[in-house]
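REVIEWER CHECKLIST
Item 1: Sequence provided? yes
Item 2: Single chain? yes
Item 3: Sequence as submitted:
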Amino acid sequence: MSSEKEILLKPSHKSMFWWYLLGVLLIPVIGLGLIIIYRTFTALKAVEYTITDRSIRIKDSKYSEKIDLQNITRVEFNQRWIDRMFGIGDLTLFTENRSVKMLGQENPGHLADMISHAAEAERQRIFALRKKPKPEPAPDPGTLDKLDYLTGLWQQGLLSEEDYQKERKHFE
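Item 4: Structure as written out by the authors:
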């Protein structure tokens, strides 16, 4: 079981206000409006944004994309006049190589600030991990035993001084 927190966001239906309005107006035209409303609803239902402690995953009906928080350089949000009335907006996440949009999010200014702070915290966490000194590797415990054995052979006279010095170089 993972201890990583996960937040699931979906685009607000308010973001498709104009498509729903168009669909309602076109219902009398051979049911065309119902098709527009259905397609808009299913398109929104397929999109989801999963935010975790380390990454953001954008999933659509056609693709899935994952962005590590440490790679996000800035976050911007955009609200049209109608979006401000509904309290929604679109977020754009920028990395060095690309940008990704999160459409129709409620309270986009607050969400943009939260993602920016989380990205900065993740960068600091990774920097602290890299800065930590790595411990010196301990010598193989078998090496000291082999050196003792070699010294014992030399002390008993079973190994010449020349052979002892030659073999001892392998343990230093």
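Item 5: Key structural point noted by reviewer: The mean pLDDT is 83.
Item 6: Recommendation: ____
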